[in-house]
Design brief:
This protein is an alpha/beta fold and 408 residues long. The chain has two domains: 195 residues, Glycogen Phosphorylase B (Rossmann fold, 3-Layer(aba) Sandwich); 193 residues, Glycogen Phosphorylase B (Rossmann fold), CATH 3.40.50.2000. It is built from 17 helices and 13 strands. It has a seven-stranded parallel sheet with strand order 3-2-1-4-5-6-7, with helices on both faces. A six-stranded parallel sheet has the order 10-9-8-11-12-13, sandwiched between helices. The termini are far apart.
């Protein structure tokens, strides 16, 4: 079915947690029938969107500015004066961009990088869609939520008006990578790449994967390293510990050349193949960022979640609520992360394969791997493309992602 050209402007970024969901929505719009040329991004000069968006095949305009510091000090005041100046300059540029592009809809991803583009949408009376990532909305999304036509919500109860529950968009490359390999194959790849271990031997072990972002978390790293020493004689367990680059010199260690008789404990500073880890691990210990929680539930990976205590509005703790209430995750306070507490929580779980399987099913029950499609359909609807028209577009089929099922 033919249609009129549609112009979509996606604004925001600053971190991967904002940028990647926007790219996921853009990719879904392309799969549904838009051309990449009909989609444009508007982000900040300081954010990772300047690299991630072009790499994904979309054009982006970059604005000056940075986030407002919430501390009270002379340096913060000086920085905030510069930040406000940058935001005002960015607002002028955003207005010119919106008037030039004349989008049918603007999608606000949140974060400081979304402020100017969203304000320009309101000023020009361009329809606005909010796509929030966290259970507690960012300041920018709360500010512009009152002007939005629809707010796409990642979790039940996210505090934005005119909300429709969609889930947090996950990039198609992540979903498809997980879909493309079953759990047994993922475990074999982990064994071959990291430990040179026989897959049959590894299949007898429960795999615990640990990560806390690209930099890592010292408290978690310290407790896990200590726990690995305490569990040195466990032949039923493998721990794959993504330490992060900041703490690598302290916690990194040489990889064993082959599977040892006791605990198999391996550290890496960074992981480029997270889809395999998500699919091959049996239990995860990690932070509770929005993308992480969404991926855990989409894959059906049981987890122990340690919310970042300094997260704005304690949003990481709020992110855990749905998954924990369903029985797919256990929440542990950051201040309580010690060798003893991890042993108390993880010890019984890792020894109980039936419980792991039940937690996997519970996590899958709240997973929304098709969230990007759901947000894309809202964007198309607000842009004026009707249901009859979108029904003839290609669908991505991302909703069929299976849970992890039984432990190997």
């Amino acid at each position: 079915m033919s249609r009129q050209p549609c112009r979509v402007l996606i604004t925001g970024g600053g971190t991967a947690g904002h940028t990647n969901p926007g790219i996921a929505v853009a990719e879904s719009l392309v799969k549904m029938g838009l051309s990449p040329e009909e989609i444009r991004f508007l982000g900040g000069e300081r954010g990772n969107e300047k690299a991630l968006v072009p790499a994904a095949g979309f054009d982006i305009d970059l604005l000056p500015g940075r986030g407002i510091r919430r501390s009270i000090s002379l340096s913060a005041i000086r920085d905030n004066v510069g930040a406000v100046t940058g935001l005002l300059t960015g607002l002028g540029q955003a207005l010119r961009t919106v008037r030039t592009v004349r989008p049918d809809v603007v999608v606000c991803l949140g974060g400081y990088a979304a402020f100017a583009g969203s304000a320009a949408a309101v000023a020009t009376r361009t329809p606005l869609v909010i796509s929030e990532q966290n259970a507690r909305a960012s300041a920018v999304n709360r500010l512009f939520g009152r002007f939005a036509t629809v707010s796409a919500l990642p979790f039940p109860g996210t505090d934005l008006p005119k909300g429709e529950l969609t889930g947090n968009p996950i990039r198609a490359s992540v979903v498809e990578a997980v879909q493309s390999v079953d759990q047994g194959e993922a475990r074999r790849r982990i064994a071959q790449r990291l430990w040179s271990a026989e897959s049959e031997a590894l299949s007898q072990r429960v795999i615990l994967a640990v990560w806390a972002g690209s930099l890592g978390a010292t408290r978690i790293n310290e407790a896990v390293a200590g726990l690995a020493e305490r569990w040195d004689d466990r032949s039923d367990l493998a721990i794959y510990h993504i330490v992060g680059r900041r703490d690598w010199e302290r916690f990194g260690r040489e990889r064993p050349p082959s599977e040892p008789a006791g605990l198999l404990y391996v550290t890496v500073d960074y992981e480029d193949h997270m889809a395999e880890i998500l699919r091959g691990a049996d239990v995860a210990l990690c932070r509770a960022g929005a993308s992480t929680v969404s991926e855990l539930s989409a894959v059906g990976l049981p987890s122990v979640l340690v919310p970042l205590p300094i997260a704005t509005r304690d949003h990481q703790r709020a992110n855990t609520a749905e998954l924990a209430d369903a029985g797919g995750a256990i929440t542990l306070n950051d201040a309580d992360v010690t060798i003893d507490s991890l042993e108390a929580v993880l010890g019984p779980l890792l020894a109980d394969r039936e419980r792991i399987s039940l937690m996997s099913a519970a996590a899958s029950s709240v997973g929304r791997p098709d969230a990007a499609d759901a947000v894309a359909r809202i964007v198309a609807r607000v842009a004026g493309i009707g249901e009859a028209e979108t029904a003839n577009w290609e669908v991505s089929g991302k909703g069929d992602l299976p849970g992890k099922g039984d432990v190997s």
